[in-house]
């Protein structure tokens, strides 16, 4: 991303075409994905209303990438994300954002390696990373459950009665 260039403006027209005002050309979602990869600063706006459509376009790019090749998000993972919308939405958003930043930081700390070298390195690390991530997920789950149990101690807190009933049923099973 260059400090001397202003944010690149991409306009989306009613015919669904995207127009890059910097290059005066029509662009595709693949072109916008390249801007993301190259860390180019941009904003997508509705040509008629000026409404910011950047998030919507980024979600389209993710959806397209998920359809091609091996997806990042399994159906179970997507269901879990959907379940988090509501009271825990901010917490999950922060968690995911911080996790992605951590991976990017690790990649940056290892130096500027070629994509192939990084892929080779990571493929060798997958079993170890899966174990570490599994442990991390389990610890996060326990933290979440402990927090839920803590809130269950306060009568009148939403979900407190439901958690207490669930805990009692679990105790009855053992």
Characterize the structure shown.
- Pfam families: PHB_acc, PHB_acc_N.
- With 174 residues, this protein is an alpha+beta fold.
- The chain has a domain of 60 residues.
- Helices cover 61% and strands 9% of the residues.
- A four-stranded mixed β-sheet has the order 3-2-1-4.
- Helix 1 crosses helix 2 and helix 5 packs across helix 6.
- The longest helix is centred in the last third of the chain and has 38 residues.
- It is globular, with a radius of gyration of 22 Å.
- 2% of the residues are buried.
Brief digest:
The chain is α+β, with helices and mostly antiparallel strands and 174 residues long.
Walk across the major sheet and give the strand order: 3-2-1-4
Mean pLDDT: 78
What is the radius of gyration? 22 Å
Helical stretch tally: 6
Beta-strand content bin: 5-15%
Helical coverage, percent range: 55-70%
For the largest beta-sheet, the strand count, sense and barrel status come to: 4 strands, mixed
Question: CA-to-CA gap between the ends?
Answer: 57 Å
Shape: globular
What is the SS-derived class?
alpha+beta
Q: Poorly predicted ranges (pLDDT <50, ≥5 residues)?
A: none
SSE run:
EEEHEHHHHH
Query: How many beta-strand runs?
Result: 4
Protein name: Polyhydroxyalkanoate synthesis repressor PhaR
Organism: Pseudomonas aestuarii
Pfam families: PHB_acc (PF05233), PHB_acc_N (PF07879)
Domain PHA accumulation regulator DNA-binding N-terminal: 9-68
